[in-house]
Design goal:
Elements lengths: L1 H8 L6 H9 L7 H35 L4 H4 L3 H35 L18 H8 L2 H27 L1 H5 L6 H42 L3 H12 L2 H22 L5 E4 L4 E6 L9 E7 H13 L4 E3 L1 H10 L11 H17 L27
Parallel strand pairs: 1-4
Antiparallel strand pairs: 1-2, 2-3
Helix pairs in contact: 3-5, 3-9, 7-9
Length: about 375
């Protein structure tokens, strides 16, 4: 059929955009058998731990509700108050069951397909009104699989229930011979064990159904190669997506640059508007390399990182501007700046040597050639 033919062409794994679109349309991974099994587990747990107490409380509550109160005849206005009180007490008694049911349902939904809500799932679809599409769904491979699963579940659950009834038949028969409170607590315990045994059967079914639903859900969302190409054109071609990608790339590059500052030997500053971090390998064949550079707020961040990493900061406005405008990141400084940068690095090394004696070397007066003199806008002076 056409639907199965289209599915055969879908060989590519779904993209994040495809999965997001499926969630927006209300398509979530769900296993009905798993949900029912977990629901029955919550019911059996509540019945086992609170069944006897709740049964006795309900028995007393029913007794109060059925007991004749002559004062209500003379004061009919109290009827609503009595009914509200009975309703409130009934709600309190069943609240553990409701709370456990809601909790287990939410946890199951979260760990299987996630929790979400979509208005689109409730909107009518014209494709569902098409009789040809309806027939294809009714007699398709998936429908046959679902029918086989339903028959197998019916057989297993029926066998389990018949076995449970047969095993506790005598105990159920003698319940009418017990006092009311004891009969209720015993009956609720039998019911809890019965629900638990049925749940074990459903868990066996769920253990088979959940992997099947996962595989089926992924196959349903698979894409053709044409869909992949169309999605790429749609997303990567949009200006806002390109801008977001560039912003992410810029953020990654900035983070890497800030991390590289800890390997610098010196930071040359303007002192406020420009900052350039330099690294030099003594005895190496390379000239000093620019590890980081920035202006204004980024320059302040570079200075802060340098201070935190105890890296010397050298104030030389013209040199800082020359390094910023002539050298890219991870590039060697240009030849006209060799002498000035060498004087700065030599001064930094002297600082390290003389700091032990408590003395301080004389700060060099850095001079640059006219071709390296820039103003703050990058224009030659």
């Amino acid at each position: 059929m056409a639907e199965e033919s289209d599915q055969a062409e879908k060989t590519e794994e779904p993209t994040e955009r495809r999965l997001e679109k499926a969630r927006e349309e209300g398509q979530f991974l769900r296993s009905q058998d798993t949900s029912i099994a977990v629901l029955l587990i919550s019911v059996s747990v509540v019945l086992y731990f609170f069944g006897a107490v709740a049964g006795e409380a309900f028995l007393e509550l029913f007794g109060r509700a059925l007991r004749f109160d002559g004062s209500l005849i003379t004061s009919p206005g109290r009827v609503l108050g009595v009914l509200a009180d009975l309703f409130a007490q009934s709600f309190v008694l069943i609240s553990p069951l409701l709370a456990m049911t809601v909790l287990f349902t939410i946890v199951t939904a979260y760990f299987t397909g996630g929790i979400g809500f979509s208005v689109k799932a409730f909107l009518p679809k014209a494709s569902k009104l098409n009789p040809i599409s309806g027939l294809s769904r009714m007699f398709g491979v998936r429908s046959i699989i679902e029918l086989t699963k339903s028959l197998a579940k019916l057989l297993l659950i029926s066998t389990s229930i018949i076995g449970i009834i047969y095993s506790v038949n005598d105990q159920i028969f003698y319940l009418n011979l017990l006092p009311a409170k004891l009969a209720i607590s015993t009956g609720l315990n039998l019911l809890a064990w019965g629900v638990m045994l049925v749940t074990l059967t459903l868990l066996l079914i769920a253990a088979i159904d959940l992997p099947y639903q996962i595989i089926s859900f992924k196959n349903k969302l698979k894409m053709t190669r044409k869909e992949l190409r169309d999605e790429f054109k749609e997303t990567e071609g949009r200006p806002e997506v390109r801008a977001r990608i560039r912003e992410r790339q810029r953020q990654v590059a900035m983070n890497q640059m800030m991390l590289a500052i800890s390997d610098a030997d010196v930071v040359v500053t303007n002192p406020n508007h420009f900052a350039v971090a330099l690294s030099y390998e003594p005895g190496g064949e390379q000239a000093p390399i620019v590890l980081a550079k920035g202006t204004d707020f980024l320059a302040a961040a570079i200075r802060g990182k340098a201070s935190d990493s105890t890296i010397p900061i050298f104030e030389a406005p013209y040199l800082a501007r020359a390094l910023y405008f002539t050298t890219d990141l991870k590039q060697e400084i240009p030849l006209p700046l060799y002498r000035a940068v060498a004087e700065v690095i030599a001064y930094v090394y002297q600082l390290d040597e003389l700091r032990k004696d408590g003395s301080k070397p004389r700060k060099p007066e850095v001079e640059l050639p006219d071709s390296m003199l820039f103003d703050e806008l990058g224009n030659l002076i």
